[in-house]
Amino acid sequence: MSKTAVPPSPSPRRTPAPFRTQPDVELCKRGELRTERFLDAATDAFIEKGYRRASLGEIVGRAGGSLSTLYRVFGDKEGLAHAIIERHMAVVTARLQDLSLSGLPPEAALLQVGESILEASVSRESLLLHRIVIGEGKDFPELRDWFFSHAVMPAQGILTDYLENEIAAGRLSLRAPAIASSQFFMMIFGELMIRVASGNLANPDIAVAREEARAAVDLFLHGALPR
Question: Which of 54, 68, 101, 145 could form a disulfide with 49 if both were Cys (CB 3.0 to 4.6 A apart)?
Answer without folding.
Answer: 54
